Amino acid sequence: MAGAADAATPVTVPAARLSSFYFAYYAALGAFNPFWGLFLKARGQDVAAISVLMSLWYATRIVAPSSWSWLAARSTRPILWLRAGCALTLASFAVFVVPMDFTALFIAMCVFCFLYNAVMPQFEAITLSHLPGKSERYGRIRVWGSIGFVAVVAGFGALFDHVPVTALPWLMLPLFAGLFAASCLNDYGRPPTGPAAVDDSGFVARLKRPEVIAFFVVALLMQLSFGPYNTFYSIYLDEHGYSPSALGLFWSVGVVLEIAVFFLAARIFTRWSATTVLVASLVAASLRWATTALWPDSAVLMACAQATHAISFAGFFAASMQFLARFFPGRMNGHGQGVFYGFSSGVGGVLGALLSGWVWKHAGGETAFLLAAGTAAIAIVITLAWLRAPRTPT
After folding, report:
1. In angstroms, rounded to a whole number, what is the distance separating the alpha carbons of residues 108 and 119?
2. How far apart are CA 294 and CA 277, in angstroms?
3. Which fold has domain 199-394?
4. How does residue 107 score in pLDDT terms, banded at 50, 70 and 90?
């Protein structure tokens, strides 16, 4: 009887507490992504050094999420790992208020990026533990992360019209303090359980399928094409005379439209296939980088290029989730997500940052963005050749 009563009792989802973590995490990211390159430049680092330092953000993505989640999964109180990770993120970031040379910055970035990248996958699991049978509510909770990103990138952009960008670490410390506070407010909805064993041989066999290999190559190329944008976009616009407030608005345009795409994703895929959306996102990316390279002095065209973020980023991500669900069904999906995350965002992010830095130094920003456009175009060819009619591997 007790079990039946428990089952009948409605479970309240702590949406506000869950949303507060996403808001704080992505608000800090809204300060880091657009302005950290400018901060490093103001601290005396050249283009080559900035590309190396920013590549650490992506390099740590290869190992941080899986290793931290592995530790949490084997703990009797996994929530303590989330809180420890957020506390250490705050502590490791505090060192940036002190002027440092390249070596010290490299070490500090390694530690900070590892910790900052480690905590979100664990919190995603916490959120889902509150949503059994209510997964449709995830978007309404996660959207507060995008709201936090937009609020900070626009607000800080306007602020840096009046204060030097070297103040960035001091301005970001309250955001990381808020992240730690949000971690203390949250806990698992129900005790996390370890995943059932997966047939590794079957998973490896799927990885070897030509269409699966092609998909991961496309994902890598797409991340490569984002290299100049993720690493130097703010510096690029700064060199072309745009104010910090204008930079904030350009970054905001893309994220605002990205929110709309994520909300409409279910409707989009009832009308168009994942392959069609994937090709559209690659075409949009290629046109976006070409426009950024050729007409950087046109504010109207820069705004239009940023508007394509809705399809070049959000559309690509949504389509990728569809492919991963087909290629790695059931309990294999978590493994497939790990490969996708580490290979595209991790390896692709590192290569994108380093290669764009090398090209930027020797041939300039315009060339870097033109090569990014060409990289996305190559991905279009691979998609049309190998992913035209994706099948679920058997």
Report:
1. 18
2. 26
3. Growth Hormone; Chain: A; (1.20.1250)
4. very high
